[in-house]
Design a protein that fits this description.
alpha/beta, 26% helix
Length: 209
């Protein structure tokens, strides 16, 4: 019989909480750590604090005979790997855990349009309902970026990047999960939260990263 790891490890930057079950009682779903927020991106409706910065002085032309300054490449726009957080949850509780994670993200200041939720098994009820009105209207809501967007992980190639991606591992084969989690990571620019069985998640990320 395989042993359940007591301290699941996903990634060196993973900051996920661990749940410890008491005897005869299920462990509560851990709450996620909200993703990093840039100081230049305040909450919607709030101005950036501090006085306006004066414009920098124009550079002086080099003196005759002086060497031209060396131009350095600006790498500030290069994409970094997102932080990864694991929330242990059974397959039939992964969607609930993902919804709790989204609630906490919004409570701590994340804009709804910053969050994408993916499911590896059965579609989230919201996605199934909105798709009943047609795919064009459904995907238009993603492009509007006004609210949390729910999608099937199998359609992750159509999903736009967002700062936070939450994945509910609520079904699918090990091969599917090993393929979908790295794809979901590619859609997150700041934080990837995975709600599911730690053994399957660790195996999937280890195979896909």
């Amino acid at each position: 019989m395989p042993l359940i790891p007591e301290e699941p490890q996903i990634h060196e930057s993973a900051q996920g909480p661990r749940a410890t079950a008491a005897a005869g009682r299920p462990a509560p779903t851990p709450r996620p750590v909200p993703g990093p927020r840039s100081a230049a991106s305040p909450r919607p409706g709030r101005p950036v604090p501090g006085p306006a910065r004066p414009a920098p002085p124009a550079p002086r032309p080099p003196a005759a005979g002086a060497a031209s300054p060396v131009r350095t490449e600006n790498r500030s726009d290069q994409r970094t790997e997102p932080q990864i957080q694991l929330i242990p949850a059974p397959a039939d509780g992964a969607v609930d855990a993902a919804e709790e994670a989204v609630d906490l993200l919004l409570e701590t200041g994340r804009a709804p349009g910053d969050v994408l939720v993916l499911t590896t098994g059965e579609q989230h009820p919201w996605a199934a309902h909105e798709l009943s009105f047609g795919e064009a209207a459904y995907w238009a809501q993603q492009d509007a970026r006004e609210d949390v967007f729910f999608a099937d992980a199998a359609a992750v190639d159509r999903a736009a990047t967002r700062p936070v991606v939450v994945v509910a591992v609520n079904g699918g084969s090990d091969e599917d999960i090993a393929r979908r989690l790295p794809e979901a990571m590619g859609r997150a620019t700041a934080l990837l939260i995975v709600c599911g069985d730690p053994t399957r998640v660790n195996a999937a990320l280890g195979a896909g990263v």
